[in-house]
Amino acid sequence: MTEEHLDRMVRDADPYRPDVIGRLEGAKQALLEEIMSEPTLDRVAEAPQPRSRARRGLVRRLAGPLTAAAALVGLIAVSTMFGAPPGDRQAAPGGTSAGPTAGPATSVVYSPVALKAAEQNPRLLIDEPGWRVITVYGFAEKQGTIAFGKGGRQFDMNWYPADQYDGYHADRRHVSAPEAVKVDGWDGDLFRYSSDDFAVMLRPRDGVFVELRAGGGNRTEFDRTLTHVVRVDVRTWLAALPPEIVTPARVEERATVVLADIPLPPDFDKAALAGLGTNDAYQFGAQVTSRIGCAWIAEWQRAKRAGDDAALRRAADALRSSHNWKVLHQMKDEGDWPEVFWETADKVVAGDVPRGYDQALGCG
Amino acid sequence: MSSGTEHEERFRRVYAADFGPLLAYALRRVAQPEDAADVVAETFLVAWRRRRDLPADGEARLWLYGVARRVLANHHRGGVRRQRLGERLRQRITAVIGGDPGSEVPERLAIRAALTRLGELDREVLLLTVWEGLEPREAAEVLRVSPAAVRTRLSRARARLRELVGDDLGRPGHVLDVVTAPAPKEGR
Predict the structure, then answer these.
(1) Rounded distance, CA A182 to CA B166, Å?
(2) Among A264, B49, B84, B182, which is least packed by CB within 10 angstroms?
(3) Which contacts (CB < 8 Å, 24+ apart) does range A178-184 have?
(4) Contact call for B28 and A16, based on CB within 8 A
């Protein structure tokens, strides 16, 4: 038996099947998020990073180096426009709430898509003056984030599918012993990451569970804020989102603006953008340009394989033109998405599709 | 961009690039496929906590294999599945792979059974070479031994395996012992 023959037999005995990796259905990203949510010594050693939690969620769908992507505090100075919700519960106007777009929610007609998307999230608001919605994204799935800011404080609400509750809860029990609390009459467990960093996991409801988290304040402040967290109906919730937030009802209008100077890849389905759910402007821009970038790179690869020089040139020109896309320039100061996009696009144009580009741009 | 952010980004890049190879490594070395989720989760958790020590991109994989190897040692020693991280990954792996060695062909089982009878280091050298596709110098880095030792071990492992499977192919014997986890050894 030759060495080669022996090695081949060993190789044949390999229990690993490469197709496993393609069938994980997001478990890879879920694990990444779990790991990066783990508190480490850095949290203590470094200055508080109140954005860190919200940042995690972005990783879920746009897995590239987007760490600064959600660093929007103070950059999107939006006001939470609480109108006059039709429900019993009235979310209080933010301290800065004012402006021509603030009006009674009942006057707004929401599309069925918008209403359905809003139904699929927990619709929790902070019913206390001064809190502003600063980040929203991920509403198209049973996972998402809404972050509120007030002064230097931030309060995040992240939610996940209910079937992941046990796993998360088991993990959080390694953080601290759970302490029973109630939020708007709903049971939850409070975990303590440090003396000024707390999280509350609410029991699953309607197929999702919510984790509330706030850093930068003491326990008394956290408890007090919790007493103001309320669950509202769909219309109230949508009305509470400032006009900058791209709700499904606003997708078409915003997409038209974003796509105005972007060459569309072959077969690009603009209508599919309605499925992006509700996002702030930055997240929306990232989601849209992600789809476009991924499609152009795929087209570039196809053309290359096929030896279709004209198509190859078109794809390269489109990717190169990304340096002039208005939306990316608007996003530049708020996070690293444009940088990552341009870096990847430049490499592809230069003939080198970087390894892991699909992760970096969230293709998939 | 702060250095903390750079470390986070590097971690993400390493995770994106090396998750697959690490999962393969883990799946090849655990008795139950879903246990691989624990090994992968634990290994990347260590990498996350030590992200400042992560070697440069492209070199991280060997470092991760080294970490995974130690995680596996603890895993086998502990004999319990940790329920800390990667629950979803565990569920998916179970769903995708299942765990029925009965569906395997006898030759594979025979080879795997023979592999369990090699010395641990010999087996690791051979598997890192054939399954993970590492060069001797890379396997040496994972195992923290000299490249010369790896070459010697590799040659010995092949000779020993050849002896073990020799003419017995087709008569696998103890198929129930077909695990890729290290077999208990004397004096261990």
Answers:
(1) 67
(2) A264
(3) A181/A223, A181/A226, A183/A124, A183/A212, A183/A226, A183/A229, A184/A124, A184/A229, A184/A230, A184/A231
(4) yes
A25 touches chain B (CB under 8 A): yes
Complex-level ipTM? 0.76
Question: Can you tell me which residue has the tokens 């570039």?
Answer: A300
Handedness of CA A321, A324, A329, A332 (dihedral sign): positive
Angle CA B96–B125–A14, to nearest 5: 25
HEC per residue, chain A: CCHHHHHHHHHHCCCCCHHHHHHCCCHHHHHHHHHHCCCCHHHHHCCCCCCHHHHHHHHHHCCCCCCCCCCCCCCCCCCCCCCCCCCCCCCCCCCCCCCCCCCCHHHCCCCHHHHHHHHCCCCEEECCCCCEEEEEEEEEECEEEEEEEECCEEEEEEEEEHHHHHHHHHHHCCCCCCEEEEECCEEEEEEEEECCEEEEEECCECCEEEEEEEECCCHHHHHHHHHHEEECCHHHHHHHCCCCCECHHHHHHHHHHHHCCCCCCCCCCHHHHHHHCCECHHHHHHHHHHHHHHHHHHHHHHHHHHCCHHHHHHHHHHHHHHHHCHHHHHHCCCCCHHHHHHHHHHHHHCCCCCCCHHHHHCCC
Can you read off the two tokens belonging to residue B29?
A: 């070395």
Asked if A265 and A299 touch (Cβ cutoff 8 Å), the reply is yes
- Least CA distance to B161: which residue of chain A? A6
The DSSP symbol for B162 reads H
CB contact A31 to B (< 8 Å): yes
Give A285-341 pLDDT, tens digit per residue. 988 999 999 999 999 999 999 999 999 999 999 999 999 999 999 888 777 788 889
| Token pair belonging to A55 | 């940042």
Q: Which residue has the tokens 């051979």?
A: B126
Q: Residue A277 is encoded by which pair of tokens?
A: 């759910």
Kindly tell me the sign of the dihedral angle through the C-alpha atoms of A340, A363, A165, B45: negative
pTM over 0.80: no
| A15, A31, A356: residue with CB nearest B180 | A15
Residue A179 pairs in a beta bridge with A190
d(CA B68, CA B22): 8
Distance from CA of B19 to the nearest CA of A (A): 8
Q: Which residue has the tokens 């999962």?
A: B23
> With an 8 Å Cβ cutoff, are A41 and B13 in contact?
no
Chain mean pLDDT for chain A: 75
